[in-house]
């Protein structure tokens, strides 16, 4: 957009820059504010007297002798055992991503290479499954899981999250595999490979960009899930999100809101890092389904 | 690909979806037709020095045995669907008979838990979706005209509200709009009313949740539209300019038609996602003023006594709602598919 005809008049430019700057503030300010505030005491973070206290940390200085304190973090991580929830979250995410990518690549590859009618119906069924609110599925799991004593354990939640992930993973990998030329595995088959060998030797080496992007979204789904992990995990096995939700009930009344604030900031940081390194993949993944139409 | 090979490739994912998506739906439908067993009562005669008394107690072992024998409970047919907690047909009919006007009738209906949740869910879905599409479009057009080096930075920060866990995002905003938080104080100052609290009024709570919804999902629309803008046909745009189209006319007649398929895509995804709104209500502790269908299910499941049947009935009603939302898309895809096949 650099040709002379498309250049904008100055007032237009100013308007556009102002609008984008405004949006940036809306998008980023809440995170920076909460990060800053998480190192303060509660009376500064929720300041009745003067809102600038949250910036300068006057009360924090009175209590701790410095404008910053790690008390919230210590309370959350040590006293409330948030580290255990962090560990559980990463166990869940790791297994959800690996298992759903294994299942998804096999299924997505098959869907992209089979010309039969039923592939269309399977993709439609996956779309309908994607639309089901997770909490309705959860209400279907509870009774059988109680009956068979499966409730409360990490593996149960992992397999449930894998299944809930599948419709989306299938759609995404299906569209990635369609972009890989069919000649590649066809010629491998002509050379005497079975379908699986063709997949193993001809497709697998070139499928990684698509798999990484899909894996990112599987990770986000597992990491951000609320309904499944809250309802299906026992108190000892809680991951981060249900742990934070449980902070709301108990610690808020005990005056330990700062534990929750610290936990929230701790849980946001991995996502920050993720966006920083994988911004391009996230953008391409979001648009993969869309631009194709 | 042969049917047999396809079958083996598709088996793991197919099995996972069958066991954990299709079967739970069957399980939900079944559960919604049964009610929990009532406790078995036993009359025991207690004889003491002052004569005999008859006492009614719960026979724990018999109750346990009954629950173990048929965990689903007693068959209740469609009773649960029509009781006060769900469609409340009797209460609605009663309210209609004794109405003094349409307003009072609606007010009565709005006190019934299911209709209360339904009204918020629908209002939320149908205000958030168009608003986020408009905001996303505006940001995309704005960012697209920025300098190349700035774009990456802007996209990074723009992604944050969408990527962050919904519960966490809503908590962060909730703490800021607390009457002692920065936004809360700012609003009090602007309205010149030191007692103003967003949490205390139903209207403001709804507005707050809607603002959160737009904030959370606008980046998705932005990214999709931004990608669409990269494929904008430059020739068409330039010829429109030569024909004397103003900036606004270029957007109206060239850019928007080009992005229309993407708008449909974003709308479909967002209608599905907004219909199941749950986390913001938990994060904002807004249940006193706004409940959604997903929230009543969560509430039924999470209590001391898990009301599985009640949750199941609401789930079935929610699934029916989702199917109604989705049906135009499905019908269209089905038609496309058939016209291609012929």
Automatic annotation (TrEMBL), chain B:
Q: What is this protein called?
A: Inner membrane ABC transporter permease protein YcjO
- Kindly state which keywords UniProt assigns to this record, in alphabetical order: Cell membrane, Membrane, Transmembrane, Transmembrane helix, Transport
Q: Which residues form the ABC transmembrane type-1 domain?
A: 118-326
Q: How does it sit in the membrane?
A: Multi-pass membrane protein
Q: Does the keyword Repeat apply?
A: no
In the record, the note on similarity to other proteins reads:
Belongs to the binding-protein-dependent transport system permease family.
Task: Give the chief site where it resides.
Answer: membrane
Kindly list the places in or outside the cell where this protein is found, as annotated in its UniProt entry: Cell membrane
InterPro entries associated with the record: MetI-like, MetI-like_sf
Q: Which organism is it from?
A: Ascidiaceihabitans donghaensis
> Lineage of the source organism?
Bacteria, Pseudomonadati, Pseudomonadota, Alphaproteobacteria, Rhodobacterales
What Pfam families is this protein classified in? BPD_transp_1
Q: Looking at the keywords, is Transmembrane present? A: yes
Annotated transmembrane regions: 7-30, 122-141, 153-177, 206-229, 250-272, 307-331
Q: Which PROSITE patterns match?
A: ABC_TM1 (PS50928)
From which domain of life does this come? Bacteria
Q: Which GO terms describe its biological process?
A: transmembrane transport
């Amino acid at each position: 957009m650099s040709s002379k005809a498309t250049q904008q008049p100055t007032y237009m430019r100013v308007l556009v820059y102002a609008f984008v700057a405004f949006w940036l503030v809306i998008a980023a300010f809440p995170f920076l504010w909460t990060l800053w505030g998480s190192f303060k005491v509660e009376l500064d973070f929720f300041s009745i007297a003067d809102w600038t206290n949250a910036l300068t940390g006057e009360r924090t200085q009175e209590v701790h002798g410095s404008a910053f304190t790690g008390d919230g973090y210590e309370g959350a991580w040590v006293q409330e055992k948030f580290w255990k929830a962090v560990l559980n979250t990463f166990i869940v995410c790791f297994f959800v991503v690996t298992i759903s990518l294994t299942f998804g690549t096999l299924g997505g590859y098959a869907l992209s290479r089979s010309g039969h009618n039923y592939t269309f119906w399977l993709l439609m069924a996956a779309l309908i499954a994607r639309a089901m609110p997770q909490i309705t599925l959860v209400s279907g799991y509870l009774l059988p899981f109680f009956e068979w004593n499966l409730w409360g354990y990490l593996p149960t939640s992992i397999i449930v999250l894998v299944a809930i992930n599948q419709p989306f993973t299938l759609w995404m990998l299906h569209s990635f595999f369609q972009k890989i030329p069919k000649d590649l595995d066809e010629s491998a088959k002509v050379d005497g490979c079975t379908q699986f060998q063709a997949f193993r030797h001809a497709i697998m080496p070139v499928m990684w960009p698509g798999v990484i992007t899909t894996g990112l979204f599987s990770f986000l789904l597992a990491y951000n899930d609320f309904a499944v992990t809250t309802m299906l995990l026992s108190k000892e096995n809680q991951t981060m999100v249900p742990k934070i939700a449980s902070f709301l009930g108990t610690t808020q009344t005990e005056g330990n809101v700062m534990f929750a604030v610290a936990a929230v900031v701790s849980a946001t940081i991995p996502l920050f890092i993720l966006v920083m390194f994988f911004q391009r993949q996230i953008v391409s993944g979001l648009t993969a389904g869309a631009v194709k139409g | 690909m042969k049917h047999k090979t396809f079958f083996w490739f598709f088996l793991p994912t197919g099995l996972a979806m069958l066991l954990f998506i299709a079967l739970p739906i069957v399980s939900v439908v079944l559960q919604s037709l049964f009610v929990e067993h009532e406790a078995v009562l036993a009359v025991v005669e207690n004889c003491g020095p002052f004569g005999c008394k008859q006492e009614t107690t719960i026979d724990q072992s018999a109750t346990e045995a009954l629950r173990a024998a048929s965990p689903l409970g007693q068959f209740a047919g469609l009773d649960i669907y029509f009781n006060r907690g769900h469609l409340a047909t009797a209460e609605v009919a009663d309210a209609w008979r004794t109405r003094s006007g349409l307003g009072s009738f609606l007010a009565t209906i709005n006190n019934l838990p299911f209709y209360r949740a339904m009204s918020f869910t629908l209002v939320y879905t149908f205000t958030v979706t168009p608003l986020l599409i408009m905001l996303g479009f505006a940001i995309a057009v704005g960012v697209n005209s920025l300098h190349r080096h700035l774009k990456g930075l802007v996209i990074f920060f723009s992604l944050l509200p969408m990527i962050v866990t919904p519960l966490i995002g809503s908590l962060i905003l909730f703490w800021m709009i607390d009457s002692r938080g920065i936004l809360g104080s700012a609003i009090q100052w602007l309205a010149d009313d030191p007692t103003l609290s967003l949490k205390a009024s139903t209207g403001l709570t709804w507005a707050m949740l809607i603002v959160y919804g737009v904030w959370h999902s606008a980046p998705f629309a932005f990214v999709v539209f931004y990608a669409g803008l990269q494929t904008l046909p430059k020739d068409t745009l330039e010829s429109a300019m030569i024909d004397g189209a103003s900036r606004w006319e270029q957007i109206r007649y060239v850019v928007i038609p080009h992005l229309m398929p993407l708008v449909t895509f974003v709308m479909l995804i967002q209608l599905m996602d907004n219909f199941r709104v749950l986390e913001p209500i938990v994060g904002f502790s807004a249940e006193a003023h706004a409940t959604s269908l997903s929230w009543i299910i969560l509430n039924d499941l999470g209590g001391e006594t898990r009301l599985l049947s009640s949750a199941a009935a609401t789930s079935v009603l929610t699934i029916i709602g989702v199917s109604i939302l989705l049906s135009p898309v499905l019908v269209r895809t089905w038609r496309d598919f058939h016209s291609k096949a012929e």
